[in-house]
């Protein structure tokens, strides 16, 4: 497709320009030549850089509004809402809940609860617990759960993102706590299938904590299997290597809001990587633990 | 706004849950407790983390399609198309071009050229030089320029992004080569004004090289002045600290395409940070060097 660079005159121009550039460098102010930042690079820890291959793609979308439902068919989707929807779902299933119904909106949550007498219903909107609902954060909600019981769960971004992905080949809930377990499961269960890491975001906004979570999941997937990462997936990987998760979560916009409400322990819990092997998968409209 | 966490029962639940968590940890498989990645964190090099402040916002959009023209008023916009539109504009003005007309499309470019007899017209679409145009990459194009002459320039993403920002308070072209000079200029010339770093992207796709460029510019701006970074700006900063620019550019999708066409020298040139003090600003529809 591209031929200009193989054209001998173009090569000659480039060599001439490189000589020209050295002259230009001589005119550059010395203070500009020294890099401003003392950066330690550690990209050698990344799994091999992408090459042309037949490996399935690994992509990241930074907010649920960017999902094109027509492009979900055949894809494995991992929804990521680190503060707190998917972290809560992972923790709730780990704490013994049998199934979590991810509600699309308030009416959907009420209808789902009406079909399940005695079910626990938890929810928040804009980080506030909804009236009459159990709290929507992992540690606080776990105290309301009944072992073997169901949960109806409504959040501003995460459960809506899960509900929007019904057309995918498979839908999982990903968090920092289950990144490696989830990655190994996806590689084993869906060989050769493209994977989309869907950051829930925050009402159309980019969420730092979800992007960092996507970076950890992308690295875990590429450690476990062979994928062709897109530019967005690589950017998420690099970002997740530029800061530690606890710092990222408490620095994020949502993290600062919930820390201001005294929920630092919830943030610290959500920031802990690879603490459990719970793999929540969407089956018949509810999230259940996938079989290993 | 948020009060649940200040509620004594909620604090009690959280403490109980923390005790519960330690029990849960006892059930965790030991191999999952050890972090998988040997990550060296260096976030202490970042300028102070954001706090509630009256500092102007610093935001990053990952593709030109995400621009809301209604929200440009009062904002300083820096358009970033590292491979190669804005890198080329910086280099062309540094090499002596008087003004660069950023064309919206082919017809716009032809009309602009017709109004400027003898002007150099350069352009590419999807990384191929357009027929009858000078090449659109920094080093190759510089050999076609006349000192003091004008340039009409059309690219797939970058010049279209610049043309789409006419409603902003000011529009600049940013690249790795002029990051620090541009940041110092913006801080001095636009005190207190919000800044939007607009990644051109690639036909609606996220471009790694532009996001890395935005990260370098965000860090340069926060080194020079006081800004409140959004989550997207912080993510770009972290990503730019997770990999060195040369590696990022050659790893990106566009970088792999142009490297395949033999343009490695152009990539290396575009990846060099802070090599010049050229600050291209949009004035009366053309990009010219801003006065220091």
From TrEMBL, chains A, B:
Keyword annotations of the record: Hydrolase, Magnesium
Known catalytic reactions: (2R)-O-phospho-3-sulfolactate + H2O = (2R)-3-sulfolactate + phosphate
EC numbers on record: 3.1.3.71
Cofactor requirement: Mg(2+)
Pfam families: 2-ph_phosp
A Gene Ontology molecular function term of the record: sulfopyruvate decarboxylase activity
Coiled-coil ranges from the UniProt annotation: none
InterPro entries for this protein: ComB-like, ComB-like_sf
Gene3D superfamilies found in the cross-reference section: ComB-like (3.90.1560.10)
Enzyme class, first EC level, given as a word: hydrolase
PANTHER family, per database record: 2-PHOSPHOSULFOLACTATE PHOSPHATASE-RELATED (PTHR37311)
Family statement drawn from the similarity comment of this UniProt entry: Belongs to the ComB family.
The protein, known as: Probable 2-phosphosulfolactate phosphatase
Annotated organism of origin: Luteimonas wenzhouensis
Top-level taxonomy: Bacteria, Pseudomonadati, Pseudomonadota, Gammaproteobacteria, Lysobacterales
